Structure formats: structure tokens, C-alpha cells
Amino acid sequence: MWFFPKCDIGVSDYDYRYLLKIGIQDHTSELDSTVAFEDMGSTILGNNAKEFYLLSSDPDLIKEIVSKALWTDHIFTLSVKTETFKGIPRLKCIIIKEETLHFMTECNNIL
User: Fold this and answer.
1) Most-buried pick from 23, 58, 59, 92 (CB within 10 A)?
2) Where are the domains of the chain?
3) What Å distances lie between residue 43 and 27, 59, 86, 97, 109, CA to CA?
4) CATH number, span 10-110
5) Torsion angle, CA of 82/38/100/21, rounded to 10 degrees?
6) What's the pLDDT score for residue 103?
7) What residues contact residue 92 under an 8 Å CB cut-off, 6+ apart?
8) Residue 100 contacts by C-beta under 8 Å, 6 or more apart in sequence?
9) For residues 102 and 100, what is the distance between their CA atoms, to the nearest angstrom?
10) What CA–CA distance (Å, rounded) separates 38 from 43?
């Protein structure tokens, strides 16, 4: 049972959600970004967050799932803004939309 003292609510089960920090890279540069939505995290990793949590007891399986997601091609729509933290400006990037890159479709769009 999970208890939340701030709300004074107890629940037996809850929805697991992804909050991923990922690195995005293209031929010009790279940046760190946050995936804040369950559907994009599921698409990128191939498992929903609850399945991923239930598999967390097997580190080799987790390593395999994450390694499959490395160096895959996607088209991202980002929300980018500059925030100041302790007087230092920082670039904050959040992935709003993700699409798996299909090379044949993209080539047809270019032609």
C-alpha cells in the first residue's frame, strides 16, 4: 500500500510513468532532453512503465531493453526554453512529440 501524507490518501496500486532523460544527437550537435509522457517513453523503450518496473529485478534484461533503444532514429518535436538557475542560464528541452523515422517515407517526402 502506498500512502501520500500530503493528500492523506492511501492506494494499493498506482500507474507507473516514465520520466526519461535522454541525449539527442544529430550531425550538428547534441543536447539533453526530457521525455515527460508515458506514450513516448513506451515507444522509445518498447515497454510501458509498469512492465519496465516489474522487470527491474533482472538487471541483464533491463540492460538489453535500454541497449535496443540506443542509437535509434526518431523525429522529435521539442519545446525549448532558457531558464536561469542561480544566475546561470540553462537550456531546457522537453520532447513534445516523437515519431519513429521511416527512411522510405522521408525520401518520398523529399522527392
Assistant:
1) 92
2) 10-110
3) 23, 21, 35, 11, 23
4) 2.40.50.140
5) 40
6) 79
7) 34, 80, 81, 82, 83
8) 43, 72, 73, 74, 75
9) 6
10) 9
